[in-house]
Amino acid sequence: MSIPRILVVEDDTEMRQMLTRYLQKHGTIALPATGENDIKKHFDSGRIDLILLDVMLGEESGIEICSNIRQEHNVPIIMVSALSTDQQRMSGYSVGADDYIAKPFNADLLMARIKAVLTRSRRSASLTHRRRQSSYTFAGWSYDARTSEVISPAGYQVALSQRELALLQTFLANPHIPLTREEIVEGLNVTESAPENSDVSGRAIDMLVGRLRSKVETNPKRPQMLKTQRGVGYVFAVDVVVTDK
C-alpha cells in the first residue's frame, strides 16, 4: 500500500507547519499549500490522496475552493474551520466535503478522521475498479462481468435483477470486508447497472440482500456467503478469485 500523500491547505504559517510535521511523524507525506494556486501545482506534480482544507484562507474561501476541486477531482476533502455551526458544516458538505472538523481539535482525533476517510476512499476505488475484471469465482459459483452471467456450482445459470447483480458486484469487489449499509449504497450508486433513482434506504438494502440470498445461498436463513455483521452491516464471507479472460 502506498504512503498517503496529504495536502495541507492552511494560510496560517504556524498551523500549517504544525500540521505538516504531525502528519509526517504519523507515516504520511504532508504537502503544504496556502491557497488554490498551490493546490493546482500539487495536482499537476503528483498524486494527492486527501486534502485538509481550511475554510478561511485570507481572501480565498475554502468552500469555494472545495467546490472548484470537485469539478475536476474526486480526492477526499476534510474541511477545517474555527466555525462549527450546523450551517457552516452543511456548507462544506453541500460542495462535496467528505468530513468536517472544528478548531481547536485534538491532533489524534484528526488523525483518526483522516484514516477513516482514506479507508472509505480506498473501498470506493475498489468498488469502481475491481469490478472491471472479467471473471469471478467464489464457493463453486462463477460470475462473468462481460456477459453478466452467474453460474451456480451445479452448472446452471441463475437470473439476477439489475439491483441484485449490482449488489453481488459490490460484495465480490470486497470479500471478507464488513460493509455498512451506507458503503453498500455507495457501491450500488457507482455500478453502471444500478439506476441512480432506485430506493437505497437501509430497509431497502436489507430486502435486497434477502433477495440475493434466496438465489445464491443453499439455506437463505443460515447464509454462508452473505453474512450479517452485527453492528456493521454485511460481509461476503468467502474467498473470491478474480481472473482476466
Account of the 3D structure:
With 245 residues, the chain is α/β, with parallel strands linked by helices. The chain folds into two domains: 5-128, Response regulator (Rossmann fold), CATH 3.40.50; 133-243, Winged helix-like DNA-binding domain superfamily/Winged helix DNA-binding domain (Arc Repressor Mutant, subunit A, Orthogonal Bundle), CATH 1.10.10. It is built from eight helices and 14 strands. The chain has helices spanning 13-25, 36-45, 62-70, 86-94, 107-129, 162-172, 181-189, 202-216; strands at 5-9, 29-33, 50-54, 56-57, 60-61, 77-81, 99-102, 135-138, 141-144, 149-151, 179-180, 226-229, 233-236, 241-243. The protein has a five-stranded parallel beta sheet, sandwiched between helices. α6 crosses α8 (202-216). The protein is elongated, with a radius of gyration of 21 Å. The two termini are 26 Å apart. The model is unreliable at 190-197 (pLDDT under 50).
Low-confidence stretches: 190-197
N-to-C series of helices and strands: EHEHEEEHEHEHEEEHEHHEEE
Q: What is the averaged pLDDT score?
A: 83
CATH architectural label of the largest domain:
3-Layer(aba) Sandwich
Strand arrangement, major sheet: 2-1-3-6-7
Number of domains: 2
Remind me, CATH topology of the largest domain? Rossmann fold
DSSP E strands, number = 14
Strand content: 15-25%
Count of discrete alpha- or pi-helical segments spanning 4 or more residues = 8
Helical content stands at 40-55%
At a glance:
The chain is α/β, with parallel strands linked by helices. Helix content is 40%, strand content 21%. The protein folds into 2 domains: 5-128, Rossmann fold (3-Layer(aba) Sandwich); 133-243, Winged helix-like DNA-binding domain superfamily/Winged helix DNA-binding domain (Arc Repressor Mutant, subunit A).
